[in-house]
């Protein structure tokens, strides 16, 4: 059942998330056990100048080893093209470092903050927006930093929700994560908590009863947003992990990054959103791939993204159409929606519907 290099691994080891983390593929030699590593790529990896590499055996086992166009492989296996940096690409494309309000806290919007609690992920995505910071070796926030971050939230009544992210917060030790959630849930002005994670996809073994208990809704609900870019990521163990979370009372949302050669085709995107909904995950955001250094080979144009949205809207259940957003360097997210409005007169709104037909609608209210 388990392919290739892991044929002889005991099922109990394979299902143990700590075993999976310990056996991640990181070096050229380890990656070559499953993937095709060209001499150029080996040279690039051995030079060690790029963003950290780590792939869980579980996720690697879903990648087609001899197919460099495999949409899963493209997301996690480095390419030599990562060495090519465009003039507009940035180490911090969202300008997050300038918005640090307290340790781990990025405060950009009036009523919500991002709380970056760890720099560690189960597997590193080649297009990671926080590549400058993720896997830097700082690991998770120390207790003094956590205290300072939570204290900032507690003394800022304008904050209504906290988005716990990283890195991947589901890699924190369970008691540490539970304590953070307990302390946030006790802050009276918070209305709900969000947590962003890719662990259900990269390391579904981590989602066990103890973790689900730690994530249970408290005074306020918890929304978990799962990063998933392709329907092939939603294998049976991943769907089981998502079901455990949903059965535990956690509302699940999806976030997807638009990536060239991964999901930039209408049927792939549509099936990914339907597969997420089938797994009880409501697609929330489709992120345009941020201009992170060395990511041009994975990025599409914004035009292409808008065209995909036009093909989805109306042809696909509205439940399966997330918001498409670009994230400005320091300016925040901007939702982009194809233009269905042609013109608005005092009396009439001229629109195009999803079939491309021209229609008119009354404008005045009385
Ligand atoms: C994306 C983001 C949020 C959450 O934004 P929503 O549009 O409410 O989902 C909050 N803070 C920062 C810094 C973000 O990048
Ligand atoms: S899981 Fe998220 S934070 Fe971690 S490497 Fe991937 S994109 Fe970056």
Might you state the CATH topology name of the largest domain?
TIM Barrel
Q: Can you tell me the overall shape?
A: globular
Give the second-level CATH assignment, the architecture of the largest domain: Alpha-Beta Barrel
CATH class of the largest domain: Alpha Beta
Tally of alpha and pi helices? 13
Helix content: 25-40%
Mean pLDDT: 94
End-to-end CA span: 67 Å
Subunit organisation of the chains:
single chain
CATH superfamily of the largest domain: Aldolase class I
* Order of the strands making up the biggest sheet: 1-2-3-4-5-6-7-8-9-10
Strand-residue proportion: 15-25%
Total number of beta strands: 13
Weakly predicted, low-confidence segments = none
| SSE pattern | HHHHHHEEEHEHEHHEHEHEHEEEEE
Q: What would the keywords be for this entry?
A:
single chain, 366 residues, alpha/beta, TIM Barrel, ten-stranded mixed beta sheet, three-stranded antiparallel beta sheet, 13 helices, globular, binds pyridoxal-5'-phosphate, binds iron/sulfur cluster
């Amino acid at each position: 059942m388990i392919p290739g290099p892991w044929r002889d691994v005991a099922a109990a080891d394979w299902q143990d998330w700590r075993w999976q983390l310990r056996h991640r593929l990181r070096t050229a030699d380890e990656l070559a056990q499953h993937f095709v590593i060209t001499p150029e790529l080996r040279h690039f990896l051995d030079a060690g100048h790029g963003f950290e590499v780590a792939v869980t055996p579980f996720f690697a086992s879903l990648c087609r080893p001899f197919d460099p166009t495999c949409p899963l492989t493209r997301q996690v296996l480095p390419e030599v093209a990562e060495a090519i940096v465009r003039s507009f690409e940035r180490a911090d494309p969202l300008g997050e470092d300038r918005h640090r309000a307290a340790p781990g806290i990025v405060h950009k919007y009036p009523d919500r903050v991002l709380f970056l609690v760890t720099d560690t992920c189960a597997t590193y995505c080649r297009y990671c927006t926080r590549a400058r910071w993720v896997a830097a070796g700082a690991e998770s926030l120390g207790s003094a930093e956590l205290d300072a971050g939570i204290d900032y939230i507690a003394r800022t009544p304008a904050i209504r929700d906290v988005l716990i992210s990283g890195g991947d917060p589901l890699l924190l030790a369970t008691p540490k994560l539970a304590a953070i959630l307990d302390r946030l849930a006790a802050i009276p002005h918070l209305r709900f908590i969000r947590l962003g994670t890719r662990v259900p996809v990269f390391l579904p073994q981590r989602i066990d009863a103890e973790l689900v208990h730690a994530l249970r809704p408290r005074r306020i609900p918890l929304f978990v947003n799962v990063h998933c870019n392709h329907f092939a990521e939603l294998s049976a163990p991943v769907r089981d992990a998502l079901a455990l979370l949903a059965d535990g009372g956690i509302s699940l949302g999806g976030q997807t990054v638009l990536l060239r050669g991964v999901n930039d085709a209408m049927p792939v995107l549509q099936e990914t959103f339907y597969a997420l909904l089938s797994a009880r995950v409501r697609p929330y955001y489709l992120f345009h791939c941020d201009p992170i250094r060395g990511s041009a080979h994975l990025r599409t144009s914004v035009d292409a993204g808008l065209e995909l949205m036009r093909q989805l809207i109306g042809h696909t259940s509205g439940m399966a159409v997330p918001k498409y957003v670009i994230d400005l360097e320091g300016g925040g997210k901007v939702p982009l929606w194809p233009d269905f409005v042609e013109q608005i007169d005092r009396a009439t709104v001229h629109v195009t519907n999803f079939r491309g037909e021209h229609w008119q609608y009354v404008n005045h209210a009385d």
